[in-house]
User: Which sequence fits this backbone?
């Protein structure tokens, strides 16, 4: 008998029931948010209600074992926003990508003292909490360095939760952007051509293992996204994944984000959200400053810069861009670049901290 993949080894019948309950709670939240005409109802609604369920200690379980195939769906969908002219446009983004490095540095320098002095975290934990991105990588590297991985996980999960919730609402309430249009998330399954569906399926099945082979971060998302961008860029197809499948993928993603708070005492979660709110406000304030300066220097649209520089997750902010009709390619490329800079730069820059130097010398 072959051994089950690691992500399935802890799955039991009771676990499957708990995952089903989590997805059911997420579905209720999605339908509620859709009724309220909020942005990204299938992601935000599921994310918020599952977070509430976690605080109420409902017997939920993260749908992490099934997240990979649905991450592939989101990757293919995001790649479908690329078009043949994208390479010509990408050359204009060099200055904006360079300024993004400055944004990462400023955010870290401002938010690190907040976690250190206001939240009272130790230096190493404060450092990895302050990094604007790379959640899984920051948890792993931080734990290896001796930081508190639970606080790091809570800080980053809270940041993503708040940013993904606050940014679309800002556009709706203060920028008068129509965020109720669902047509940008593809056509109905019944209207999709079989050949297009086969091509889109191939993008996922080829892209994910290829990205794993090349050691991409988040390969289930980036690999299908890259292959889909290539396929759509050369005009092989113009079809996005069916809307119904995309909605389910958002449901799984939102449920997984909300489930990050499972098993943590409510008081600790609420405390983390309170601390995370302050850090998120600081990061969004820095984002606002760069959203004012970058368009002046590069000519990029303000809305695109806001989403490209917002400290949310790659998949989440790309979905927000799609919902708002903002250039998804610009936003996703900037977030991929930000993740790469944080993943590569954070472990190197950590050596500048006295606490890290003492630990290294002690080893």
Assistant:
């Amino acid at each position: 008998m072959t051994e089950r993949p690691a992500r399935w080894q802890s799955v039991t019948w009771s676990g499957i029931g708990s995952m089903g309950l989590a997805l059911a709670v997420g579905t209720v939240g999605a339908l509620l948010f859709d009724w309220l005409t909020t942005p990204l109802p299938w992601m935000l609604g599921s994310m918020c209600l599952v977070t509430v369920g976690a605080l109420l200690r409902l017997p939920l379980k993260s749908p992490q074992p099934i997240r990979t195939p649905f991450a592939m769906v989101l990757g293919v969908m995001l790649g479908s926003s690329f078009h043949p002219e994208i390479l010509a446009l990408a050359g204009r983004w060099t200055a904006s990508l360079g300024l993004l490095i400055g944004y990462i540095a400023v955010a870290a320098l401002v938010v690190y003292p907040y976690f250190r002095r206001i939240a009272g975290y130790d230096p190493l934990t404060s450092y990895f909490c302050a990094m604007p991105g790379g959640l899984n990588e920051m948890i792993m590297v931080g734990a290896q360095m001796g930081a508190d991985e639970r606080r790091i996980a809570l800080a980053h999960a809270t940041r993503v939760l708040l940013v993904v919730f606050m940014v679309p609402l800002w556009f709706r309430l203060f920028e008068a952007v129509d965020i109720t249009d669902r047509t940008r998330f593809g056509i109905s399954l019944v209207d999709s051509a079989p050949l297009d569906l086969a091509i889109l399926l191939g993008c996922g099945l080829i892209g994910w293992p290829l990205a794993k082979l090349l050691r991409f971060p988040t390969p289930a998302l980036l690999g299908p996204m890259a292959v889909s961008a290539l396929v759509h860029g050369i005009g092989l197809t113009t079809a996005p994944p069916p809307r119904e499948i995309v909605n389910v993928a958002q449901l799984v993603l939102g449920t997984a984000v909300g489930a990050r708070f499972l098993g943590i005492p409510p008081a600790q979660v609420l405390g983390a959200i309170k601390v995370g709110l302050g850090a998120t406000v600081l990061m969004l304030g820095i984002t606002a400053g760069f959203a004012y300066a970058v368009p002046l220097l590069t000519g990029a649209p303000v809305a695109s810069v806001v989403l490209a520089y917002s400290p949310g997750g790659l998949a989440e902010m790309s979905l927000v861009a799609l919902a708002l009709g903002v250039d998804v390619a610009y936003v996703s490329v900037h977030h991929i670049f930000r993740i790469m800079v944080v993943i590569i730069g954070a472990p190197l820059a950590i050596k500048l901290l006295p606490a890290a130097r003492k630990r290294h010398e002690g080893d």
Remarks:
- Residues 266-298 form the longest helix (33 residues).
- The chain has one domain: 68-362.
